[in-house]
Specification:
The protein is mainly α. The chain has helices at residues 2-29, 35-41, 50-61, 70-95, 105-143, 150-162, 171-200, 205-235, 248-259, 268-293, 299-303.
């Protein structure tokens, strides 16, 4: 399960890398981080659009800029998704014993959330470094500042300025965002796949793709404000700048004060444009890898918890 999930994570993150960078810039430009980048892309006026940010990124950094930080993202996403998928299957079987509903939606929801928190705690430092590297590259290229020091340089800078605890700055918000995000993502995916099975078939890749699109759209729209807060906390104090936020609540308050409630949804279109294909790709590749590796989760074992498996049944 871990290998299948890791492959799914690597493929999905590479597909969504360009829009992931655009999303980070839109999320953080509203409160002063990378403000020059946002103003220049927006023509010196209002908020920069997805297309203008992407054009400015290419003009400043070349086409490779669209994938800056993707290596760190893949390093993070592969084990993170591997852990998420493997833990989800384990948690789902355990929680199903306490879920009396027919479709086990509550068990799926709880299993998805707990798998997300588990994976975040294991891989969060890579997420923080990737975010800082992707963002400071844009800031440095647009303001004449120091060139980005690379992934290891970004990691070193965090430890020097904040100590080892700095590697988990924003982690509580990340867990608060990831629990409902993956809870909804996994639960809605299984729910949707159960309902499209009659049309596409239980093992259909098209069914996995369609269910992944639905799950990604729902989960990312609901939890996006928490992701905005997390990204701003990750970039707070970068480059030796004075810290602006006392914590997650203060960060959210300042974003709302600066741009209104809409500021908590800054970058949502870019995020959905990224998250929907990422979710669809991850579930599709995961199902493909399970089939290739001969891994099968037996539905009857899940729907009838507490009943011993028959001899010869796959685990």
């Amino acid at each position: 399960m871990f290998a299948a999930g890791a492959a799914a994570g690597a493929c999905a993150r590479t597909v969504g890398s360009p829009l992931s960078r655009v999303t980070i810039l839109q999320q953080t430009a509203a409160t002063g981080n990378l403000a020059d980048y946002g103003r220049r892309a927006g023509g010196g006026g209002g908020r920069a659009s997805i297309a203008s940010l992407a054009r400015d990124m290419v003009a400043r950094e070349g086409w490779r800029g669209l994938f800056r930080g993707n290596f760190a993202d893949v390093l993070r996403a592969a084990p993170q998704m591997g852990i998420s998928f493997a833990c989800y299957e384990t948690y789902k079987r355990a929680f199903s014993r306490y879920d009396a509903t027919d479709d086990k939606f509550l068990a799926r929801f709880g299993a998805g959330g707990c798998s997300g928190v588990t994976s975040i705690l294991c891989t969060y430092p890579l997420d923080l470094v990737r975010t800082r590297y992707a963002a400071t590259a844009a800031a440095g290229s647009g303001s004449g500042g120091a060139a980005p020091t690379g992934l290891w340089g970004a990691l070193r800078d965090v430890v020097r300025s904040d100590g080892l605890r700095g590697l988990y700055r924003g982690a509580p918000v990340a867990c608060a965002e990831k629990f409902p995000n993956l809870a909804l993502n996994f639960a809605m995916y299984d729910w949707a796949k159960d309902r499209v099975a009659s049309t596409f078939g239980a093992k259909s890749i098209l069914g996995s793709l369609a269910s992944g699109v639905f799950a990604g759209a729902v989960s990312n729209t609901v939890t996006f404000p928490l992701d905005v807060v997390m990204k701003n906390l990750q970039l707070d104090g970068v480059g030796g700048a004075a810290r602006k936020y006392a914590g997650a609540l203060d960060c959210a308050r300042q974003i709302v004060a600066a741009r209104g409630v809409r500021g908590l949804y800054g970058g949502l279109p870019a995020n959905l444009a990224k998250a929907i294909p990422v979710a669809a790709t991850s579930f599709m590749v995961y199902d493909l890898m399970k089939q290739e590796l001969g891994l099968h989760v037996v539905p009857e074992s899940f729907r009838a918890p507490g009943v011993g498996e028959k001899a010869g049944e796959p685990p």
